[in-house]
């Protein structure tokens, strides 16, 4: 026995039903060798990767429509990896990443469950450089700005791994740290288009959810030179 229980969930995206193995509930916890603890994952946080969150569903819906032709895509904090699975189903060149010890195995299982090829996965901590990861045309993430220091950590990852001409798409349920993240990406030469989105069927206008689409058409150094 793995020490935790799971259930199957069906999530419709773009007219297609994705079958997913997720943790049974948010009370699941199993860290017998202390791997998660050494990574800084507390018992309260341990189960969060194994759920389908509204922002994750919103990101998957966006990736169903997004132009990803000839783009190399990186998902940060993929968790169950629904958005990456949607991209894999579209034939995109996608790399999923997370720091949770079980994210890779759940992602592989869910790819097989949906008759998709195995995804390229990298274990990744935002505070530890990973030079071999390379650079990307599009970096995506959902609900990753839930602590005050995440804006700086995430913007640093973008700075290390975004190509000079690149896009960043983040879905956020309105936690309050997106303003700082936008300021940090603006300093890197990105411009923002923000769309308000419902996070569930009970969410009424003005919607609390945000789809943040950043794009950069010139390197940050060139933007600074032009503005100077």
TrEMBL record:
Keyword vocabulary terms for this entry: Methyltransferase, Transferase
CDD domains the UniProt entry points to: AdoMet_MTases
Gene Ontology terms describing biological process: methylation
SUPFAM superfamilies: S-adenosyl-L-methionine-dependent methyltransferases
Keyword NADP recorded: no
GO molecular function terms attached to this record: methyltransferase activity
Keyword Transferase: yes
Domain of life of the organism encoding this protein: Bacteria
Full protein name: Methyltransferase domain-containing protein
């Amino acid at each position: 026995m793995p020490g935790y229980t799971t259930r199957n969930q069906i999530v419709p995206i773009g007219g297609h039903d994705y079958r997913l193995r997720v943790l049974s509930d948010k009370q699941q916890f199993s860290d017998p060798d202390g791997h998660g603890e050494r990574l800084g994952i507390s018992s309260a946080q341990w189960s969060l990767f194994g759920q389908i969150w509204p922002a994750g569903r919103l990101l998957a819906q966006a990736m169903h429509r997004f132009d990803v032709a000839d783009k190399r895509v990186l998902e940060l904090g993929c968790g169950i990896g629904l958005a990456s699975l949607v991209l894999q189903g579209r034939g995109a060149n996608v790399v999923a990443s997370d720091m949770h010890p079980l994210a890779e195995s759940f992602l592989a299982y869910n790819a097989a469950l949906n008759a998709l090829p195995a995804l390229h996965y990298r274990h990744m901590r935002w505070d530890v450089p990973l030079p071999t990861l390379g650079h990307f045309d599009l970096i995506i993430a959902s609900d990753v700005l839930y602590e005050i220091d995440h804006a700086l950590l995430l913007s640093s990852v973008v700075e290390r791994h975004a190509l000079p001409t690149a896009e960043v798409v983040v879905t956020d349920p309105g936690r309050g740290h997106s303003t700082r993240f936008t300021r940090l990406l603006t300093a890197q030469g990105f411009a923002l288009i923000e769309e308000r989105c419902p996070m569930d069927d009970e969410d009424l206008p003005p919607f609390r959810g945000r789809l943040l689409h950043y794009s950069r058409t010139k390197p940050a150094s060139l933007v600074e030179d032009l503005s100077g």
